[in-house]
Amino acid sequence: MSAAVKPFRIAISDDILTDLRSRLARTRWPEAELVDDWSQGAPLQWIREVCAYWADDYDWRTREAKLNRFEQFTTEIDDLDIHFIHVRSKEPSALPLIITHGWPGSIVEFQKVIAPLTDPAAHGGNPADAFHVICPSLPGFGFSAKPKTTGWGVDRIAATWAKLMDRLGYARYGAQGGDWGSAVTTSLGAQDPTHCAGIHITLAFNAAPKVEGEPTAEEKRALAGLKHYVDLDSGYSKQQSTRPQTLGYGLTDSPSGQAAWILEKFWAWTDCNGHPENIFGKDELLDNVMLYWATETATSSARLYWESFGKRRTTPKVTVPTGVAVFPKEIITPVRRWMEPNFSSITHWSEMEKGGHFAAFEQPELFVRDVRTFFATVR
Questions:
Q1: To which protein family does this belong (predicted)?
Q2: Domain containing 351: what range?
Q3: Less Cβ around it within 10 Å: N or C end of the chain?
Q4: Catalytic annotation present for 292
């Protein structure tokens, strides 16, 4: 391994944890919502319960140790330290696979899938389906450094991932992503077709609606999702894409605010039958919140929206084999006909029976199965 790649372990200081508990204890709460559902936002009673658990029962040191069971590293690329999990398979024919998260996610999303992907034989799979797994933290997210200049948009991140894979000695690899990870993965497939063997995505960022005549059932579903998103669910995006700095003051200062800002999306974007705790435990939810709180990355992570929306960008044309997994509760479900102008080689398309936006986190078994199935065709 290159000398430029340095081992890393998560080690949040005691001072940060003490300060967190103090802030939680001194939270100034708003009055409760005036409705009996989530239509005005995350309900006061639940956010108070989560924050009480965070302050009194959540054991970060245990959770930190669970994350540290995966080998982690940092390396400087383009003057920025990039943090990543890197777990090599014992199988000699393993395919390197770089998996990219989005907002408000993190490397926490992939804890359940790393082991079955790297060691399929131990998890009821075929050793021929093994991967070397690389999970980077996006710039300005988690334990990656915060960009000190503008310009860190999707395409630059994708170019950085290509350099990362080269630095790790991988001349041929696959890429997978959801949310912003889908956009980065798409750009990576377009930029580095010589080395990227194929991409697998769950969200189609650059597939604009192109309805001709009566919409198909697939198109109607996506159009309904788009309308709901624009009308009721996109306020966070407008704020983060226009005034991320203004937003950051409150989120960086208030753990309850940071938690509510993130956890509302785990209600809105998951297949949870009305409540996030129907599929996630509080520990899992707070693990992800902690990667924003402890690293003070509310503002720097939001800037990815500012870098990406409203800016002129050439739509990438992807020629490498592309796999798409359509989870029914995705924000806007992909439509093959809308994607085909920009993806010339969609070789795998699967309609999943359940699951939402955080595919690997919500439905790890379905996610692993689909990733294995697609990449078996490009090995």
A1: Belongs to the peptidase S33 family.
A2: 1-28+38-207+216-378
A3: N
A4: no
